[in-house]
Amino acid sequence: MSTIFFDSTISDDVRREHLYNGHLFVFSPCPSAISLCDLAREMAEEAFAPLDPREAQHSLPVEDFVAILAKLKPAFIHHPKSKQLIQGILQESGCDLNKTYFDVPRLRTATSDGYLSSGIAYAFHPHRDTWYSAPQCQINWWLPVYEITSENGMAFHPRYWSQPVKNGSRDYNYVCPVE
Ligand SMILES: [Fe+2]
Q1: What is the pTM of this model?
Q2: Is the pLDDT assigned to residue 128 strictly greater than 90?
Q3: pLDDT at position 158, please?
Q4: Could you tell me the residue range of the domain that residue 42 belongs to?
Q5: Residue 157 Cα to ligand 1 middle (Å)
Q6: How far is the centre of ligand 1, averaged over its atoms, from the C-alpha of 129 (Å)?
Q7: What is the mean pLDDT of residues 98-125?
Q8: What spacing in Å lies between the alpha carbon of 172 and ligand 1's midpoint?
Q9: How far is the CA of 104 from the centre of ligand 1 (A)?
Q10: In a domain? residue 21
């Protein structure tokens, strides 16, 4: 049975133990998390201007949409401010900066109505991240760039935490030059 902790103040060591046992933690945004989401929104809005990035698929040819994302995503991932803000989030969340490794942040995008069904904005099949060679110790943090709605949220399926799932990665072959 998984527990969802809200704004828990337990230590990073205990929190990590809980996470590795399949529990979930939800936090109110810390200042660095707000800044990281601000940065993502600013960059997305600049890239899609004058369109709203959330609605752009409805008025852009798919090739143009893909071309914008192909520039926007690596620009955000490798923006020097992104790395600083990730460190800020770790610090503000009680992690030991001398012992915590972090990866650059990925900007996830998805479209609707079959607009883009492969490549850069593909909605991933259900999977374990280790199927993509993520290290077993990896802990994922998810931040909503825009307000969460029922249509754009994500689901967790905690019963599969301890239940074996056959690796289905041979059934798909992502052509995904940029995450
Ligand atoms: Fe994943």
Answers
A1: 0.88
A2: no
A3: 85
A4: 30-171
A5: 13
A6: 5
A7: 82
A8: 14
A9: 15
A10: no
Of 7 and 172, the structure prediction assigns the larger pLDDT to 7
The C-alpha atoms of residue 53 and residue 65 are separated, in whole angstroms, by 10
Residue 48 within a domain: yes
pLDDT in tens, 64-105: 999 999 999 999 999 999 999 999 999 999 999 999 999 999
Q: What is the pLDDT of residue 178?
A: 45
Q: For residue 90, what are its two tokens?
A: 């770790």
Can you tell me which residue has the tokens 């301890």?
Answer: 162
Structural domains in the chain (count): 1
Interval between CA 137 and ligand 1 midpoint (Å): 14
Q: What confidence category does residue 42 fall into, taking pLDDT thresholds of 50, 70 and 90?
A: very high
- Assess if residue 124 is contained within a domain: yes
- Plot region of 161 (φ>0 → left; ψ -120 to 50 → alpha; else → beta): alpha
**102: in domain:** yes
What is the CA(127)–ligand 1 centre distance, in A? Answer: 6
